[in-house]
Amino acid sequence: CLGAPPMIQSILENLPKASAVIVGEPSEMKVVNAHKGCLGIHNHIIGYEVHSSIMHKGVNAIMAAAKLIEWANRVNDLNSAKEPSSIASLFDPSYTTAHTGKIIGGTAHNITARDCKFDMSFRILPDETESFWKKDFLKKVKEIESQMQKIYPKAKIVSEQSIFVPGLRPEIGGEAETLVRQLTGDNETNAVSYGTEAGQFQEKDYSAIICGPGN
């Protein structure tokens, strides 16, 4: 999904626009007309090191990061309890998820961590926007950063977007879907929770669909 956006732009500038885009992700030759978007935000928490016996005078970057990760847990609980929309009900799980899969930080067990780094990633339903989730997360980042700076004014959290892939929405009468259904004979509606270049093509007004061998 890194090379696709400049490739799509080059196609638009130099070639006739195709009427249909088939993204060959492994779908067992089933027609997939929807996928979630993906937003990644890299976070570097910078705290203040002191001995853990006087931890109230320091800022523990790992413990600050833990507050943001716990925010993600609460988001997942709230989202999972919502009544899913018609598009959301196509997915498993049927809601936007927030996830941290790796965290790095700290010096020793008896020192408040000066540094902590982790990625927060969102798998976003195609009827929701990445700007909403980015804004919501960064609001929490500012809240935690403010708490840190009350103890040590130079403490901070640096958050930078690392990736965004738009979701794929079902198209009413889409040429790509019509074509692939004729070729495969598949009349079912399928959605996947991973992201593909199909959303990037659709963002540029292409009719796009996912279909390929394997799983």
List the helices and strands and how they pair.
Blueprint: H1 4-14, E1 21-23, E2 32-35, E3 37-46, H2 61-81, E4 97-99, E5 103-105, E6 115-124, H3 130-151, E7 156-165, H4 175-184, E8 190-192, H5 198-203, E9 208-210
Parallel strand pairs: 1-9, 2-8
Antiparallel strand pairs: 3-6, 3-7, 4-6, 5-6
Helix pairs in contact: 2-3
How would you characterize the overall build of this protein?
The model has no long low-confidence stretch (mean pLDDT 96). The strands form 3 sheets. Strands 3, 4, 5, 6 and 7 form a 5-stranded antiparallel sheet that branches. This protein has 5 helices and 9 strands, in the order H-E-E-E-H-E-E-E-H-E-H-E-H-E. The chain has helices at 4-14, 61-81, 130-151, 175-184, 198-203; strands at residues 21-23, 32-35, 37-46, 97-99, 103-105, 115-124, 156-165, 190-192, 208-210. It starts with a helix and ends in a 5-residue tail after the last strand. The protein is α/β, with parallel strands linked by helices.
